């Protein structure tokens, strides 16, 4: 009989196994960091700020995290960009209604960014500055999406719907970069809902076109 592999126990920075209280304190620190990063740049955030927001002393912070970046990365782990909803949409067959499927995907993508805007913006800014940890996190977040988009492009090529001269991974990268830039730009949606809707529709059309699915018969 095959034994079930047990998950490794989470330990704090000093090697102690965490119980309920420890997990609770760690969770409060993560939640505090996620709130504060919405109000100030990541590089201006201090350990003392996070500890105060979480209701603990600064020394307690270091029991669970080595620095500010570590706790923000932990917050990002709890809010993955490649969410189950996003991956489920990409795993669907889009052939019967390509443009509508693209609309669903774009709206889900923008919605995820709206929910986690501060964390994802902080991740991207740190990654753009060359921080290796945030670069790794960004790629980890995006890779499942990129793989699935590339697979859709490859399938479109095999069906004669997309040019075979294009690299599927390159197309997936350009699509994702465009959507990410659109989502990370200043929020015009509240001030101009019409423009927001137009930009989303344009993004969906571009995505469907890249997959050869934007013709009227496939909408």
The tally of strands reads 0
Structural class: mainly alpha
The largest pleated sheet is described as: none
CATH class of the largest domain: Mainly Alpha
Helix content: 55-70%
Portion of residues in beta strands equals under 5%
Tally of separate helices: 10
> How many structural domains in the coordinates?
2
Give a verbal description of the structure.
By secondary structure, the chain is mostly helical. The protein has 2 domains: 59 residues, Tetracycline Repressor, domain 2 (Orthogonal Bundle); 135 residues, Orthogonal Bundle (Tetracycline Repressor, domain 2). Helix content is 65%, strand content 0%. The chain contains 10 helices and no strands. Helix 5 packs parallel to helix 8, helix 6 packs across helix 9 and helix 9 packs antiparallel against helix 10. The longest helix is centred in the middle third of the chain and has 27 residues. The radius of gyration is 21 Å and the shape is elongated. The protein starts with 19 loop residues before the first helix and ends in a 9-residue tail after the last helix. The N terminus is likely disordered.
In short:
The protein is an all-alpha fold and 219 residues long. 65% of the residues lie in helices and 0% in strands. The protein is elongated and about 60 Å long.
Task: Pick out its properties.
Tetracycline Repressor, domain 2, 2 domains, disordered N terminus, 219 residues, 10 helices
What order do the helices and strands come in, and which of them pair?
Layout: H1 20-36, H2 47-54, H3 58-64, H4 68-78, H5 84-91, H6 98-115, H7 117-128, H8 132-158, H9 168-184, H10 193-210
């Amino acid at each position: 009989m095959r034994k079930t592999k047990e998950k490794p126990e989470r330990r704090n920075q000093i090697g102690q196994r965490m119980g309920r209280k420890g997990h609770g304190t760690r969770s409060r620190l993560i939640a505090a960091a996620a709130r504060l990063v919405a109000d100030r740049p990541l590089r201006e955030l201090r350990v003392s700020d996070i500890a105060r927001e979480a209701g603990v002393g600064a020394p307690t912070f270091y029991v669970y995290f080595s620095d500010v970046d570590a706790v923000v990365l932990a917050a990002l782990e709890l809010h993955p960009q490649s969410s189950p909803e996003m991956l489920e949409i990409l795993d669907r067959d889009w052939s019967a209604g390509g443009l509508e499927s693209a609309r669903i995907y774009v709206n889900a993508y923008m919605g995820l960014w709206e929910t986690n805007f501060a964390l994802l913006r902080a991740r991207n800014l740190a990654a753009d500055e060359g921080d290796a940890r945030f670069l790794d996190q960004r790629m980890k977040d995006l890779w499942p999406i990129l793989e699935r988009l590339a697979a859709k492009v490859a399938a479109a090529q095999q069906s004669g719907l997309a040019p075979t001269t294009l690299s599927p991974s390159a197309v997936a990268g350009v699509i994702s970069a465009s959507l990410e830039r659109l989502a990370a730009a200043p929020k015009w949606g509240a001030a101009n809902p019409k423009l927001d809707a137009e930009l989303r529709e344009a993004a969906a059309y571009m995505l469907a076109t890249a997959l050869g699915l934007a013709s009227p018969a496939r909408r």
